[in-house]
Design a protein that fits this description.
Shape: globular
Number of strands: 2
Number of helices: 15
Structural class: mainly alpha
Strand order of the largest sheet: 1-2
Order of helices and strands: EHHHHHHHHHHHHHHHE
Radius of gyration: 21 Å
Distance between the termini: 5 Å
Largest sheet: 2 strands, antiparallel
């Protein structure tokens, strides 16, 4: 991990990354709190979008993780180039980044269930950061060693191959179905995933097989990053292409849903396309608002979060923010009407974290991996 001054970058990329992280650090509680305050069913409906799908299906909260992977690809695409010269230093740097993200993912999951000394069979090795690291690492290898045509063919092959694997392969009664108990993913995690799974489920939502298709989310980001870089001087053409690509990807994903259901836990190929489609459309929207119209003031809090996304993500697990809120504001909160207490708690929680992010931002400190 290093601490450096941030480099100039597209405002929209940081703003979208920060918007994505905003829901993880406490923003997801806003709609439920507003429903308590107002009783309006509109807020209750939005609160439902802040929950993961039970199995098949798609909610806004299902988009948060793949959007982050997508944005890691966008950053890669903006600087994409094939390697030349001495390759060893960049390989070492990439491997170190991958290892650090996997390690930080374990730390985020609070590492050992029973604490130290190490109990290797009680570690949850898979994680959000680990998947981001693996997806980025494979994507960067493709970018460094292959041209755009091969990258696109590889992405297509992964999506089709993953569908064929889940649909056609049957081992010991597992496979050919897309259920928690019977999918081939469950068989792989049961036999090959070390340590523990999320909530001790038979299938880990960040399980082994589903790492493979998540690479394509990063590759969609790479393609969009290349597009942003190539057509930045032609914003109308760029926006048109982003909209067409996003809508086409989204449409194909939902059409595929009839054969290969959209499912986050399985990270189905249709889920990849649906999540990538929405990610591209959001990228187009943020690019239009922030970098074309130059309406940036509204997005400043998101940018402040986005440039230090890893720092606030780790802090959301390792720092007891609710304890801090109770220590500082509980006397005020308990004096409020009961219906107003949840919204004030959420705003206080978000406010404390934003203060930390603004403190880092004002000092040009970016903590990155």
């Amino acid at each position: 991990m290093s601490v450096t001054k941030p480099k100039p970058r597209l405002y929209s990329v940081d703003a979208l990354r920060g918007m994505d992280m905003f829901w993880i650090i406490g923003g997801e509680g806003l709609f439920a709190a507003l429903f308590v305050l107002t009783g309006w069913s509109f807020w209750q409906s939005l609160a439902g979008q802040m929950q993961h799908s039970q199995w098949h299906g798609f909610t806004f909260y299902d988009l948060i993780f793949p959007l982050f992977i997508f944005l890691s690809g966008v950053s890669l695409g903006l600087s994409a180039k094939r390697l030349s010269g001495d390759k060893k230093p960049v390989y070492i740097k990439a491997v170190k980044r991958l290892a650090l993200l996997i390690l930080l993912g374990i730390v985020y999951n609070h590492g050992w269930g029973s604490g130290m000394p190490a109990a290797l069979d009680e570690i949850r090795y898979t994680s959000v950061l680990g998947r981001i690291g693996v997806s980025w690492f494979i994507a960067v290898m493709l970018v460094w060693h292959f041209g755009l045509r091969v990258q696109m063919l590889m992405a297509l092959a992964i999506l089709l191959g993953y569908w064929a694997l889940l649909a056609l392969v049957n081992i010991e009664g597992y496979g050919g179905v897309y259920t928690l108990e019977g999918s081939i993913n469950t068989w792989v995690d049961t036999h090959f995933l070390p340590g523990i799974t999320y909530r001790n489920l038979p299938l880990d939502p960040e399980g082994i097989l589903s790492y493979v298709p998540s690479v394509v989310n990063a590759m969609f980001g790479v393609f969009v990053g290349r597009l942003l870089k190539a057509q930045q001087q032609q914003p109308q053409l760029l926006l048109r292409n982003l909209l067409l690509l996003g809508l086409a990807t989204l449409s194909i994903g939902w059409l595929w849903d009839g054969f290969f259901p959209v499912n986050k836990a399985l990270w189905s190929s249709s889920f990849v396309l649906v999540s990538a489609g929405y990610s591209i459309l959001l990228m187009a929207l943020f690019y239009y608002l922030c970098d074309v119209l130059m309406w940036q003031r509204w997005a400043k809090p998101f940018v402040v979060i986005g440039v230090n996304a890893i720092a606030i993500y780790m802090a959301s697990s390792l720092v007891n923010w609710r304890y801090s809120v109770d220590s500082l504001f509980s006397g005020i909160i308990v004096g409020l009407p009961q219906g107003a207490q949840p919204i004030v708690e959420v705003l206080a929680l978000l406010g404390l974290q934003l203060l930390l992010m603004f403190w880092l931002y004002r000092r040009n400190v970016v903590i990155k991996v």
